[in-house]
Design goal:
The protein is mostly helical. Helix content is 48%, strand content 7%. It binds one RNA strand of 76 nucleotides through helix 5, strand 6, helix 7, helix 10 and helix 12.
Length: 502
RNA sequence: GCUCCCGUCAUCUAGAGGCCUAGGAUACCGGAUUUUCAUUCCGGCGACACGGGUUCGAAUCCCGUCGGGAGUACCA
């Protein structure tokens, strides 16, 4: 069932949609280590068979981030190799997949399906209503091939589906799992192999390419486990020796759901831009799935390669814990050779200069002023001085009440439909708020209400906002400043300013 | 709904029937060092999901329950 004596060749096959993903790095790391440990090859293949979602820029970002991490692939789109092209859209043009679809058709292992999107939609709706499994009902499976050919010839739109067995069980032992995976064939969908645009789906393309590229082991995320029967079956019907398939756990959010950008930074470019060191990120990712046999927590990529064992990989999806990443990052950073550390510092400053210099330059006298003046814009926290937070003639309580009110108002603003956190919008909002708050009720206002309304003077409110958001009395124009600091941080700082007045 | 996978401290994990009174790391809490902070060092808190088996003996094997996750696309 598995190919044991083949040279080790593994791959990662990301889809170039959106930003390069930390999950790709995770799976890439495991594949890289496995390949290198066994003296094999690590291949990068781009799976861009979804013409509507894939972009060349995204593919480029994948190459860049893999290289940044040092997960250097031996073969790939931009480095070449004997099994190219390594981009599936280019292989589509070579008619590679069509050929195999035709073979399956000729063998009676695939068939034409003429269902429209609407047909499938109503079918699903019915199944849902009846609490039935949601899958293609195989309505065209029994169609006479001659009739199908005629409809195709007449120009009717079609897809090609796989004709999987209807009875018996599929059994496969994943080396990382205790029990073999058993699935009844009747529960397995007649998956589309060739779409109506003539392009292959993942299932066909991946199986064909893994074979053509001599892939010995497919180490991939758990989300693929459900389609494993289809992939093994395709290999067999196509006459291939299947690679060994191994499924590893999915990276998780703190709530255990599959990692997502709403709940975690998933963009590799972000880590790079934040100053995370490849060694630290890789080290962290490694501890998530593969423990070091000597109990080490900090180790390099080369060390990992040396001790890597596929059977040590964990199948339970690990929670992505930023705190631990940060700890490792600190360890690696502090050990940097001086020159490298300086380079990192320069990089961090340069990144600020571009965005902040326009704001600060008017107030600068020396180059060094930049450092001090830029500080409130990126500091984790600022220290407030009580005096700065109490306008002349006010008392602590009055200040605190207003800070509270300002936070509330801003929170509400952010939650608004079309809220934009930029200088003009903020200014408009704040001026509106002041106008509004400075009106005491027209009739029957209590003296307290009148006094409170009187406090809403632009000059005073703006100063309080400035001091609250920056911890200082001087800053670039207030609304530019607030915009540059960002909503979350502004709110957080106003909160701590308020605390200071207790 | 249906199918499949998984289940050791809050989190990442060690653990392959007796070395387990369950070890390490992060986080958290304390202490020492440091003018402060950070680093470093020391200490503390803290888990085998539950119930049945199998066995002289179970975190480790089996079954059930519960819990979590994934898949269910002409996306990958």
């Amino acid at each position: 069932m598995t190919a044991i004596d083949r040279p080790v060749r593994v791959r990662i096959a990301p889809s170039p949609t959106g930003d390069p993903h930390v999950g790709t790095a995770y799976i890439g790391l495991i594949n890289y280590c496995f390949a290198k440990h066994h003296g094999g090859k690590f291949v990068l293949r781009i799976e861009d068979t979804d013409q509507s979602r894939c972009t060349p820029q995204s593919a480029q970002a994948i190459y860049d981030s893999m290289k940044w991490l040092g997960l250097n692939y031996d073969e790939g789109p931009d480095v070449g190799g004997d099994c190219g092209p390594y981009v599936q859209s280019e292989r589509v043009k070579l008619n590679i997949y069509r050929r195999y679809a035709d073979q399956l058709l000729a063998q009676g292992d695939a068939y034409h399906c003429f269902c429209s999107a609407r047909d499938l939609e109503s079918m699903k709706a019915r199944q849902r209503a009846n609490n039935e499994p949601i899958m293609y009902d195989r309505r065209h499976r029994g169609m006479d091939p001659a009739e199908a050919a005629a409809r195709v010839a007449a120009g009717e739109a079609y897809v090609i589906r796989m004709k999987t067995p209807l009875d018996g069980d599929f059994v496969y032992k994943d080396r990382l799992r205790k029990q073999p995976t058993v699935k009844a064939w009747k529960d397995i969908d007649d998956q589309v192999l060739l779409k109506s645009d003539g392009w292959p789906t993942y299932h066909l393309a991946a199986v064909v390419d893994d074979h053509l590229m001599g892939i010995s082991h497919v180490i991939r995320a758990e989300e693929w486990l459900n389609s494993l029967p289809k992939h093994i079956w395709l290999n067999e019907r196509l006459g291939f020796t299947p690679p060994e398939y191994v499924h590893v756990g999915l990276l998780r959010n703190a709530d255990k759901s599959k990692i997502s950008k709403r709940k975690n930074p998933t963009n590799l470019l972000w880590y790079r831009q934040q100053g995370y060191l490849p060694a630290a990120l890789l080290n962290f990712l490694a501890t998530l799935g593969h423990s070091h046999p000597d109990g080490l927590e900090k180790f390099s990529l080369d060390d990992l390669v040396r001790v890597f064992e596929l059977d040590r990989i964990n199948v339970t999806g690990p929670v992505f814990d930023m705190a631990k990443l940060k700890h490792l990052q600190g360890q690696w950073f502090r050990e940097l050779p001086k020159a490298d550390m300086i380079a990192e510092i320069h990089r961090a400053i340069d990144a600020r200069v571009d965005t902040l210099l326009p704001l600060l330059q008017e107030r600068m006298v020396f180059g060094g002023d930049f450092l001090a003046q830029a500080e409130p814009f990126y500091a984790e926290t600022v220290t407030h001085h009580v005096d700065d937070l109490i306008p002349k003639g006010w008392d602590k309580d009055q200040s605190r009440v207003m800070l509270d009110d300002l936070q509330r108002a801003l929170k509400q603003y952010i939650a608004g439909e079309n809220a934009v956190w930029d200088a003009p919008s903020l200014e408009a909002f704040m001026r509106g708020l002041i106008t509004d708050r400075s009106q005491a009720p027209a009739t029957g206002a209590t003296p307290e209400q009148e006094a409170a309304a009187k406090q809403w003077q632009p000059k005073t409110v703006f100063m309080l906002l400035r001091a609250g958001a920056t911890g200082r009395r001087e800053s670039p124009p207030l609304f530019d400043t607030l915009a540059a600091i960002g909503s979350a941080r502004v709110l957080e700082r106003l909160g701590s300013a308020q605390q200071k007045l207790r």
